[in-house]
Design goal:
This protein is an all-alpha fold. The protein contains 18 helices and no strands. It is globular, with a radius of gyration of 21 Å. 38% of the residues are buried.
Length: 333
């Protein structure tokens, strides 16, 4: 029984057998996308000479990498894969995955402050959505975008609409996502009790479907409100399982927020911070991937720790001008 590595070696030695073993590895990476996307990336990165793969293999490789990059927070891999994917935009497999591709493009643009272009990309994605599941997912992304634009009432309205539709369709994953995002709005508005309820429902929902990335997100958010409320018993009960999941599911931004939360817990229980720990917190602050999260950390977790974090300026809205983005602007396939 050959290992995956042996299959790759054989494939490199004989082009006639490359396709089958590499397809199996890519398929395994695709299978892990929902439960352990970090493993998907490891499997994909174990394949050498990706540029030498067939067109369909390159597309499958980069679309899998693109999808894994969103929950793991690897925005560099995401944009690198999109660059390759759009070189194949006439390929039938590209057309088949068009909604996922334009949606992921919108996510990257939103996270990098190309707000208007993110809106364009998500609207294009919605235009080509072929079922309610896809429309619901994109509606959630549009609500996130509204939140980033401080259009909180619009975001609330979109989430309420999406929740009704997700409930009717029994889309448990989307219901958990929506609850988590509604909790973030409540947290930003200072409705801490309401935020807690949303995060509790989201965490239970993610646990019921065994979605680990969601459990980490909702778990960390719930830890945040426990820290604000100084519910330290609840904090201790939840911290260990959340940290264990996060360590096995590498996302630097989430691990940075966990460091802040755990340090806050220790500080509130009388442990002084060393100079090294303060430096680690400042470094972790810069690793947070969302200015709104940085603002929440600055507001709720920095009091009494005697460190100065950077002031959060409202980012300037930029324009994205790579040649392949013109196709998304026209949204014609």
């Amino acid at each position: 029984m050959r290992t995956a590595a042996q299959f790759i070696l054989v494939g490199l030695l004989s082009s006639s057998v490359v396709a089958a073993p590499l397809d199996e590895i890519i398929k395994e990476a695709e299978d892990y996308l929902r439960v352990e996307p970090s493993r998907s990336l490891k499997l994909l990165n174990a394949i050498p000479h990706v540029h030498s793969l067939t067109d369909i293999q390159q597309l499958r490789w980069h679309i899998a990498a693109m999808r894994a990059s969103v929950p793991t927070g690897d925005m560099t891999q995401l944009i690198d894969s999109l660059e390759v994917i759009f070189h194949h935009q006439k390929h039938p497999y590209f057309i088949d995955k068009l909604v996922s591709i334009t949606s992921a493009t919108g996510i990257w643009l939103r996270k990098n402050h190309y707000i208007n272009d993110a809106q364009t990309s998500l609207e294009c994605s919605y235009k080509h959505a072929i079922n309610d599941r896809q429309k619901l997912t994109i509606t959630n992304s549009l609500a996130l975008l509204a939140r980033q634009l401080d259009e909180l009432e619009k975001a609330k309205s979109l989430y309420a609409k999406a929740k009704r539709l997700a409930s009717i369709a029994d889309r448990k994953n989307l219901l958990a996502i929506i609850e988590n995002n509604q909790g973030m709005i409540a947290l930003e508005e200072g409705n801490i009790g309401q935020a807690e309820q949303h995060f509790r429902i989201a965490l239970a929902g993610y646990q019921n479907i065994d979605k680990r990335s969601g459990q980490i997100s909702a778990g960390i958010n719930l830890l945040f409100v426990f820290a604000i409320q100084q519910q330290w018993v609840n904090f201790q009960r939840l911290y260990s399982p959340t940290e264990t999941l996060a360590q096995a599911f590498p996302n630097k931004a989430k691990q940075a927020l966990l460091l802040w939360l755990n340090t806050r817990f220790k500080h509130m229980h009388g442990e002084p911070l060393s100079r090294e720990e303060k430096a680690q917190l400042i470094s972790a602050f810069n690793q947070l991937d969302d200015d709104r999260i940085r603002a929440l950390v600055s507001r709720h977790l920095t009091s009494g720790v005697d460190i100065s974090v950077p002031v959060i300026d409202k980012p300037k809205i930029k324009r994205f001008n790579r040649p392949w983005f013109e196709k998304i602007k026209r949204c014609e396939w």
